[in-house]
Amino acid sequence: MRIKPEAERIVGYVRVSTDDQADHRTSLDSQEAQIRTDAETKGQIVVRIFVEAGESGQDARRPEFNRLLDFVEDPGNRIHEVKIFSLSRLGRNMESQVQTFARLKRAKVRLHSLTQLFSDDAMGNMLRNLIASFDEYFALETAKHTRRTMRRNAEEGFFNGGPVPIGYESRTVEMRGTKAKKKLFIHENDARTVRLIFDLATVGQGNGPMGARAIAEWLNERGYTLSNGNKFNNSNVAGILGRCHYRGYYFDMTRDEQGGRAPEDTWVRVECPQIIPEETMDAVAALRAVRRPTVTPPRVVNGPTLLTKVAKCGTCGEGMTIRTGKGGRYSYYSCNAKVSAGAARCTCPHVREERLDAVVLGALERQIFAPERLRMLLAEMLEASAEADERRARDLTQARLTKTQAETRLRNLYEALADGKASLKDPIFNTLLAETNSRIASATATIEALERQIGKTTKRVTPEMVDAFGALIRDRLNGSDPALRKAYVALFVSEVAVDQGSIRISGSSQLLERAIGRTEPAIMGMVPIFDRKWCPEEDFTIGTKNGGFLRFSERASGRLY
């Protein structure tokens, strides 16, 4: 009796890279169909087809490719052969292919190319290696030409593809032959989530700015998701907060041919719609830099000390840290240099924590947020309110003009459609239609926002608003919540310099201007950027030296600011 031999068990591997997508001959479906047909002709059993879509053959870290090798090397799967359309589908890297050939040989698994026949001897091995070498050369040449095309595409302001950041969508804006030219447009639903994330990072929910992890938890608890439906986490929120696109531009061609970081002077800047104002992006960047664990320990960011990162030694310029005395009954601000090297390094005295805190809070309350002083500091802003209305009026005129032009263009498109000169099946027509409707919607939103601002006194900065703002801050500085006091001091004070007989406090008048008219949480969340100083005409000098410590009594020889 003749025993029928067991049918061979085979697996297939199909792959396309982005550059291969338009080639129907090597499409995924075409490759898989030809593998199954060949196996059926030979009476083989197709155990599994491994599909790799959009992965470069230059990369040996392809997930399906490595699953294939692990699968065929497992004796329990009893695989006899790996079928591929051609060696180029297996990869375009000579070193990777040679290693793959060796692994298959050790596993006693044949490699069969449908379009390239090789004998199972030294000659066949040489031909395989020769073709693998040609495949690698072809891949490198193709990559070179692709990079040149992508650079030209970016220089013309088009989107080269890849992951679209949340808040945007890519749309085709024109066709050049069979090539669709795309740009990024705002996806308004997702853009609202992006704006909310930046609000939480700068404003928070009543307890000051929130970090990436806290923001992710807050969003997930309320059902917010990414565009693909995934949940937020520390990593992707941090990526959003640091993404350049939201400023209104991004950089392309940032990697060289080997995949390393290209020199910055070779990067291509590409414009895109702005979602977050430049100053907000800078504020978040500054806050994240200060809060980075490698720069500032969490105990410093979240600790109760009022003048953390603010108190400086006026003698040597070093920061001041908290030390305790009398068995922990007293706390002092001490110069870091003096603590580490002793009095020989710095002569700055130790300062009782509660007394320095009281002096700074009192100076802010009386010298900055007193009504007369605050009006003087913000006089320029008060005078500029009428100018702001004039600017809004000019912007409103321009927005109305843009809307009128877009509506005229929309009518022309519909007339062309009615006359049979255009078709809804034409992708270019549909792109122009979508772009025009988007322009009308954007202009309409701008007009509505400007019309709400112009002529409404609640939107203007008035002396009464300044007085109310000063009263609010004075109330918060005198409040019982130490975290709240710290948030306000960190917002408005950049440095408290202490030396033998004086204290000098500096801050930003620009931050005062930005804070006026904001809601309370927004005031708390603003990040100090100290580009313009409150320049004191005379230092605020207080106290007398006694036993190495300053005993403070107020003896102001002039204005603090």
Describe the structure in brief.
The protein is α/β, with parallel strands linked by helices. It has helices at residues 28-41, 63-73, 87-90, 94-106, 122-155, 188-202, 212-221, 234-241, 278-291, 298-302, 336-341, 353-368, 371-377, 379-383, 385-418, 427-453, 463-477, 482-492, 509-515, 520-525; strands spanning 9-16, 45-53, 81-84, 110-113, 168-176, 179-186, 249-252, 268-271, 311-313, 320-325, 330-335, 351-352, 495-498, 503-506, 544-546, 549-551.
Name the overall outline: extended
Poorly predicted regions are 21-25, 294-302, 455-459, 517-561
Helix content: 40-55%
Number of strands: 16
Mean pLDDT: 75
Beta-strand percentage?
5-15%
* End-to-end CA span: 109 Å
**How many helix segments?**
20
Question: Can you put this structure into words, describing what you see?
Answer:
With 561 residues, the chain is of the alpha/beta class. It folds into 4 domains: 9-148, Resolvase, N-terminal catalytic domain (Rossmann fold, 3-Layer(aba) Sandwich); 168-296, Alpha-Beta Complex (Hect, E3 ligase catalytic domain fold); 303-378 and 463-551, no CATH class; 382-457. Helix content is 47%, strand content 14%. It has 20 helices and 16 strands. It has helices at residues 28-41, 63-73, 87-90, 94-106, 122-155, 188-202, 212-221, 234-241, 278-291, 298-302, 336-341, 353-368, 371-377, 379-383, 385-418, 427-453, 463-477, 482-492, 509-515, 520-525; strands at residues 9-16, 45-53, 81-84, 110-113, 168-176, 179-186, 249-252, 268-271, 311-313, 320-325, 330-335, 351-352, 495-498, 503-506, 544-546, 549-551. The protein has a 4-stranded parallel β-sheet, with helices on both faces. Strands 9-13-14 form a 3-stranded mixed β-sheet, with no helix packed on it. Strand 13 (495-498) and strand 14 form a beta hairpin. Helix 7 crosses helix 8, helix 12 (353-368) packs antiparallel against helix 17 (463-477) and helix 15 (385-418) packs antiparallel against helix 16 (427-453). The chain is extended, with a radius of gyration of 34 Å. The protein starts with 8 loop residues before the first strand and ends in a 10-residue tail after the last strand. Mean pLDDT is 75; it is low at 21-25, 294-302, 455-459 and 517-561.
